[in-house]
């Protein structure tokens, strides 16, 4: 085998292609650029405005985020005198790594997972759970009272939604008899959304809370704490902070599509050409879920911190426990 063939085989292998191209970094960047544009456009349409328009006006301003990202790239990265400089620089790198790591456990298509493990679902959740720790570090190291308040809010929200998400996934793991994401798709004769709608609902709410999208965008608040944990960051690092929530939303949407929407099924014939192409249906489902979350921004008001926490502990946590009991009932009574 020549060097060129060896390099090509390495690049197209699941261990490289999946985390770097699809569903990993490159696809996540494209999703980040387009979903923010779509979110702004949807909100503008609901409010009878135009939305982003001036960059690539002929195409509805679709490259507005690319222009914003380019502007961030050329802005100076300022390190405040009052910050803990080492952690201030290291924390965004840690946050970005934690936001990308879940893609190592998410299969793009049948037989095309970078890390195939019987506990892959827990691997995704554990990776996503590390991101709030980095956000806490960003807020604490900034040495700014608004940043620290935002970090504390992140901690409160993390405690409120993580148990909900874990219990929802556990409920589906009981039904499928596995936490392997690829096996979970194979065992969905009926989509998980219909098998356990309570679990699907609580997972969806936990996903929105985790990603900090409306009505749960508590960590930031232009009226009270501006950009929260990211308020002292500037340039491209500020852009990374703003993109973290969307990266988490993308990873959660892929997980939701696998557990509740039958993943890449029906498998497209182009799978035989190259396996990741079979994951196109998975991407379409995940993107549709993200668009629905973006739509919610336009029709729901923003919760206060106490309202969001009360809902998390008193409503959604009991519902998540009920979804586990419902799965146990279906497993014992229906499947025998």
Task: Itemize the secondary structure elements and their pairings.
Elements: H1 3-11, H2 14-20, H3 25-46, H4 64-73, H5 85-100, H6 120-142, H7 145-176, H8 181-186, H9 192-195, H10 197-211, H11 235-260, H12 280-299, H13 305-334
Q: What does this protein structure show overall?
A:
The structure is a single chain. With 336 residues, the chain is mainly α. It has helices spanning 3-11, 14-20, 25-46, 64-73, 85-100, 120-142, 145-176, 181-186, 192-195, 197-211, 235-260, 280-299, 305-334. It is globular.
Shape: globular
Largest sheet: none
By DSSP, the count of extended strands is 0
The fraction of residues in strands falls at under 5%
Q: Segments where pLDDT lies below 50 for 5+ residues?
A: none
* Helix fraction bin: 55-70%
- Secondary structure class reads mainly alpha
**Span from first to last CA?**
53 Å
What are the secondary-structure elements, in order, as H or E?
Answer: HHHHHHHHHHHHH
Gyration radius from CA atoms, angstroms: 20 Å
Overall pLDDT confidence: 84
What is the count of helical runs?
13
Highlighted features:
336 residues; 13 helices; 65% helix; mainly alpha
In brief:
The chain is an all-alpha fold and 336 residues long.
């Amino acid at each position: 085998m020549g060097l060129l063939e060896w390099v090509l085989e390495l690049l197209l292998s699941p261990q490289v292609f999946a985390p770097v191209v699809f569903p990993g970094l490159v696809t996540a960047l494209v999703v980040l650029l387009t979903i923010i544009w779509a979110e702004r456009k949807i909100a503008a349409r609901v409010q009878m405005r135009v939305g982003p328009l001036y960059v690539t006006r002929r195409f509805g301003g679709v490259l507005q985020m690319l222009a914003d990202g380019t502007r961030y790239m050329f802005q100076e990265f300022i390190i405040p005198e009052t910050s803990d400089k080492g952690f201030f620089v290291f924390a965004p790198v840690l946050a970005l790594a934690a936001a990308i790591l879940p893609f190592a456990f998410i299969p793009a298509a049948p037989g095309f997972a970078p890390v195939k493990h019987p506990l892959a679902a827990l691997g995704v959740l554990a990776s996503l759970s590390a991101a709030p720790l980095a956000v806490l570090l960003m807020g604490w190291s900034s040495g700014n009272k608004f940043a620290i308040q935002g970090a504390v809010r992140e901690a409160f929200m993390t405690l409120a939604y993580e148990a909900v998400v874990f219990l929802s996934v556990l409920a589906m793991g009981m039904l499928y008899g596995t936490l392997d994401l690829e096996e979970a798709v194979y065992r969905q004769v009926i989509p998980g959304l219909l098998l356990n709608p309570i679990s699907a609902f609580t997972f969806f709410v936990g996903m929105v809370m985790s990603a900090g999208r409306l009505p749960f965008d508590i960590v930031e608040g232009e009226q009270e704490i501006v950009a929260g944990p990211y308020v002292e960051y500037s340039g491209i690092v500020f852009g990374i902070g703003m993109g973290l929530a969307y990266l988490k939303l993308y990873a959660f949407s892929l997980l939701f599509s696998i557990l509740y929407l039958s993943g890449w099924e029906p498998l497209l014939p182009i799978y035989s050409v190259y396996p990741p192409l079979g994951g196109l249906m998975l991407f379409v489902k995940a993107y549709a879920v993200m668009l629905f979350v973006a739509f919610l921004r336009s029709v729901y008001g923003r919760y206060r911190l106490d309202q969001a926490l009360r809902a998390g502990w008193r409503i959604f946590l009991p519902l998540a426990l009920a979804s586990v009991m419902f799965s146990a009932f279906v497993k014992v009574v229906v499947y025998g």
